[in-house]
Amino acid sequence: MFALVDCNNFYVSCERVFNPGLNGRAVVVLSNNDGCFISRSDEAKALGLPMGGPAFKFRKILEEHRVAVYSANFVLYGDMSSRVMNTLAGFAPAMEVYSIDEAFVDLTGFERIGFEATARSMRRTVRRDTGIPVCIGLATTKTLAKLANRKAKKEVAFGGVCILHDREDARRAMASMEVSQVWGIGRRHTEFLNANGVRTALDLADAPTEWVRRHLHITGARVQAELNGNSCLPLELVRPLKQSICTSRSFGTAVTDEASLGQAVAHFATKCALKLRGEKELASLVTVFLCTSPFEERPRRYYGTRTAALPVATQDTLAIVRAAQAVLGTLFRPGMPYKKAGVILSALTPVTGTEQHQTTLFEPEPLQVQERSARLMQALDAVNSRYGQGTLRIAADTNTSWKQRQEKLSPHYTTNWDDIIEVVTSDERG
DNA sequence: TCTGGGGTCCTAGGACCC
DNA sequence: TCTGGGGTCCTAGGACCC
Question: A406 with A71: CB under 8 angstroms?
Fold first, then answer.
């Protein structure tokens, strides 16, 4: 039996934990650069503010209904997420953290305690210990657990917990669920399925398997099998190593000069290298991309991307920044209003401790060079982890003229002492 | 003025091997 | 008229997820 625990309106709920005045009010959290809605309270949903909707198109509604608007505070949300996950981990031995706000928990063997009682207890405990409200769906496959969770969220009568005990329960639930709501069925597949008379999840479950296999491929066939109670997606207990690492941002205002782009790319490459060391992996390829707004008119629209091989698989910030800068030089076209850029590391391999054997044919890196690099990165990470990211940084990563908009950022309540002190003093001011 | 960021997996097709 | 069989690896693009 799989339980899918999903936090309600997660980012909004995080803001509410530290600002209870937001309870009962319409609240939205915006994407980076204050662009789109990425989390909405129930009240905000009721106002018709759509998921992913660009904020500037809904300015009037936001103002008229005095909607509370927040810039995304991912440091806060990430920390709150680990609190929720740690709480859940206390309930069952096997669990998969599926996303920042969701976890699958294996409740096989909990029949004796009771699925319902266990789920209710999880819900109460997470709420009590973290302040975050969650809904829980239980079923015999992950895909059905997702479906049950959706019912638990949409239908108040469930009180936040929906259990599909057997095939009959599942079929009843599927009959009232649009196929577009099924996990793994996106926009394109929905169009195709609807055009062929498949409207509900139950229609998909009952469709001829060969037909599903042919048009929705192996992934769609798995979805169908899972809807019919055949579990093909096991719990992933250990997170697999990442295969690529990406850092990219939209700019607050368009950037036109190569120097500013170089600083942005240096910054993104630096962040990628830090994530890479956190993963304990080495990168062999660096990709840089830069683009204008996709809403830009033809002659001013541009999307450039190019990949370069690093001479040696590495996790050294300096080597990665150098490579990224070189790629940028080949992509830059003058006169374009650039709105976004990014760096991607790929062809990743785990650090094994025997990397000194990996050298280039013509310019073998002396061992001392690699050892120095490793020690330098250790020192860099130690300083920045103690005094804050960016305390010690390379000179190319200094100017911030490309910075994104973030006008309504909440304090880092759980991770920054200075922000806590700020809260206290502003409270004292009343 | 203003439209996010970070991932994974699958397939098809081309280039290449013997 | 007619041109094998069996593979691997790589990449681009599409689709999906949160």
Answer: yes
Q: Which of A119-123, A149-153, A269-273, A386-390 has the lowest mean pLDDT?
A: A386-390
List bases, strand C, within 7 Å of protein CB.
Answer: 14-18
What is the token pair recorded at A174?
A: 């599927």
Provide the CA A31 to C1' B14 distance, Å, integer.
Answer: 40
Residue A60's H or E segment, with its range, is helix A59-64
pLDDT in tens, A84-133: 999 999 999 999 999 999 999 999 999 999 999 999 999 999 999 999 99
Q: Topology of domain A167-227, per CATH?
A: DNA polymerase; domain 1 (1.10.150)
Distance CA A184, CA A194 (A): 15
Cα–Cα nearest to A250, from A30, A3, A47, A35: A35
Whether the CB of A34 is less than 7 Å away from nucleic strand C comes out as no
Domain spanning A244-387, CATH class: alpha beta
Whole-angstrom distance, CA of residue A275 vs CA of residue A265: 15
Q: Is A246 helix (H, G, I), strand (E, B) or coil?
A: strand
Amino acid at A50: P
A8 CB less than 7 Å from any atom of strand C: no
Domain A2-163 in this protein, CATH class: alpha beta
Give the DSSP H or E segment for A368. Answer: helix A367-387
Q: Which residue is nearest to nucleotide B3 (CA to C1')?
A: A54
User: Domain coordinates of chain A in residue numbers?
Assistant: 2-163, 167-227, 244-387
pLDDT at position A429 over 50: no
> Tens digit of pLDDT for each residue in A191-234?
999 999 999 999 999 999 999 999 999 999 999 999 999 999 99
Confidence label for A424 from pLDDT (cuts 50, 70 and 90): low
Spatial contact of A282 and A316, defined as CB atoms under 8 Å apart: no
What is chain A's mean pLDDT, rounded? 92
Cα angle A295-A300-A301, degrees, rounded to a multiple of 5: 50
